[in-house]
């Protein structure tokens, strides 16, 4: 059964989304089944790592922090864009990260990109450096400190600092 449905929750979610988007009929149900099965098999080829979430209270606190930040950022960007006299100083900020967990990095990229006025530009895995673009960059250090304390620190508490090594493969130092 595990071979046919390696990711059963993904299968069910994709099938439901397919039917919600395309309407329910026998034909759409069959197409949705095929698409969901193939997507599950493709995910197996990608070999996603297993994450062990460590702190539910930290997850909820981070979610709240992100929602508040997105609302504040929407207001700030609207003021910036609608203000005729305010000049923008866009720029790039490079941030050294301690977080190496792929799941945590993916969530960090979603948080940064979902927050208006910022965009994830690059992550250099060799140097563990994140580059973001900021719409109105006044102080680079503020952005470094903000990303590290508001997002990276809770993500390390949730996922751990580094990706867990696969069984039989030790992470080299």
What does this structure look like?
- The chain crosses the membrane at residues 6-24, 29-46, 58-82.
- Keywords: Cell membrane, Membrane, Transmembrane, Transmembrane helix.
- This is Na+/H+ antiporter subunit E.
- The chain has 173 residues and is mainly alpha-helical.
- It is built from 5 helices and 3 strands, in the order H-H-H-E-H-E-E-H.
- The chain has 2 domains: 8-46, no CATH class; 56-159, no CATH class.
- Strands 1-3-2 form a 3-stranded antiparallel β-sheet.
- Helix 1 (8-22) packs antiparallel against helix 2 (26-46), helix 3 (56-82) packs antiparallel against helix 5 and helix 4 (102-114) packs across helix 5.
- The relative contact order is 0.14.
- Mean pLDDT is 86; it is low at 166-173.
Number of helices: 5
Q: Helical proportion?
A: 55-70%
Uncertain regions: pLDDT < 50 for 5+ in a row? 166-173
Q: What overall geometry do the principal axes of the alpha carbons give?
A: globular
Cross-sheet strand order for the largest sheet: 1-3-2
Mean pLDDT: 86
Largest sheet: 3 strands, antiparallel
Output the structural class. mainly alpha
Beta strand count: 3
Radius of gyration: 20 Å
Binned strand content: 5-15%
What is the distance, rounded to the nearest whole angstrom, between the alpha carbons of the first and last residues? 38 Å
What is the N-to-C succession of helices and strands?
HHHEHEEH
Q: Summarize this, please?
A:
It is a multi-pass membrane protein. The protein has helices at 8-22, 26-46, 56-82, 102-114, 140-159, and strands at 91-96, 118-124, 129-134. The protein is mainly α and 173 residues long.
